[in-house]
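Question: does this match?
>
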Amino acid sequence: MKDPVVDRSGGGNNGIVAVIGGGSIGLAFAIVFASAGRPVRLYEPDAARRVAIPGLLRVRLDDLRQFDLLPETAEAIEDRVTLADNLAMAVDEAVYVQECAPEILALKKELFAELDRLAPPHAVLASASSFIVASAFAAGLPGRHRVLVAHPGNPPFLIKVVEIVPAPFTHPESIQAVLSLLESAGMAPVLVRKEVEGFVFNRLQGALLREAYCLVRDGVASVEDVDRIVRDGLGMRWSVIGPFETADLNTQGGIASHAEKMGPSYARMGAERGQHDPWTPDLVARVTEERRALLPLDQWAERVSWRDRRLMSLVRHRKSERQA
């Protein structure tokens, strides 16, 4: 890790990335961008955490190296990360600013006002917010057109999906710049089409967690039972394919047949929890159309076999891990 001096690397593919916040997400983002060859300025306001960051960075990089997940030496990646003494130093000449501060609205409002004042006019300002939309903390900023959310899975150096959530006021050029930058860093950005609290990742995760808590509360299953069913059941499939493709491949005739056969049961289970979001014929038709565009029915059996082979590979890997 470099001494806290200001780099003058310019823009382009090697433009400086500023990471604001040295917690687990900030440190992980620093690894993502430094591994992609970009100089990174990392700013952490807490003095004790700032002292700990070099050691934590080395531990993460050493772990990744042991699993052959680094594109080059840990030392080369580490050398691209500079600890900045202050916010102004961190964002000086940055092309992209990734905020990773705590999930506190007042803090984000204050911080983004400072980032908008200090960062170069061309720099895009992104928040790693898990639930808070950009409209809530950036609507009054002069530079609000360059603000959006870039919410990662944790840790982003292993979970590559990152939600890009623009506000209505975010310029298309800023959105495209972030998509391109993250793709060039090896991430898998997903553009979320409208602002909703929790975006997609945490709404899906939250739906499962809400039901998990209810099942434990109602004495249906223990905490370990629920975790085992997800870990050794649902999670096995979801590590290969998502919920729509799972439904599509689980039923002869595809997802339209699945909705016809299973939809009423899911509707009754939702009603038990006070939820009324039926799979209407129009909605099922829309989902079916998207699935058939991705997988024509004449390729359904072939895809089922592909899924099974991927699961076989995963089962083999788990078996070898247990025997190691």
